[in-house]
Specification:
2 copies of one chain form a homodimer. Chain A is α+β, with helices and mostly antiparallel strands. Chain A contains 5 helices and 3 strands. The structure holds a DNA duplex. Chains A, B: Keywords: Cadmium resistance, DNA-binding, Transcription, Transcription regulation.
Chain lengths: 103, 103
DNA sequence: TCAATATGTGAACACTTGCTCACTTATTAA
DNA sequence: TTAATAAGTGAGCAAGTGTTCACATATTGA
């Protein structure tokens, strides 16, 4: 009997997985995400100081992370406090750090 | 006492994490990786048939995955059998699929 | 109302990326 | 040795991406 090749995950699921990884696959965005799960909640200015990228560039990247539902924010006066939208993201990133440290 | 902002993970570690996610953040490469953990081991021709991308494009992507130590291969005659280099990758991808399914 | 502070937006541009095309290398069978 | 099969490589190019610059919006305090 011939070996049957499997392709269990649908094209669409895998495309979404790729989209998710692509968003985390940028140095500025992963630094923002890391800063957020280290600190819980940060305003834009705190993020700018922690990740050492221009304020404008941070704004653009925050939008991408927000559109992909990786982060969201709470508004307080003229400030916006961003936080991770889902604890899964932290688990995935930490697991990846563990994985890479074994190389 | 002022809140102290944390940035625990080094710039370099986070850069490597971003590099890793960037490699998985492409539809062709994630399809290859998925096909490999569904099937254990595949020759290039099997991969071409499963992911529905040209043979040449698959070759280019296999090289990127190999360079990043995500896959490796066993040579048998004129064929090369590729497989995942580390079980962590499967765990990370499956965890991500679970995460996305909760959205 | 006016100025200051906090954040966001859109266009432009250099840089990167993934594909195709033409060609090459390696192995096996005739 | 020749032809066929399996796989890889490098150049070229269209499409995508991340940053900067100039400008816009929103909120607060004087």
């Amino acid at each position: 009997m011939d070996k049957v090749l499997k392709n269990d995950h649908s094209e669409e699921t895998l495309f979404e997985v790729a989209e998710f990884f692509k968003v985390l696959g940028d140095p500025t965005r992963i630094k923002i995400v890391s800063a957020l799960f280290e600190n819980g909640e940060l305003c834009v200015n705190d993020i700018v100081n922690l990740v050492d990228v221009s304020r404008t560039a941070v704004s653009h990247q925050l939008r991408i992370l927000k559109d992909k539902r990786i982060i969201s924010y709470r508004k307080d006066g003229q400030m916006k406090f961003y936080h991770l939208d889902d604890a899964h993201v932290e688990v995935i990133v930490l697991l990846t750090i563990t994985h890479l440290s074994h190389h």
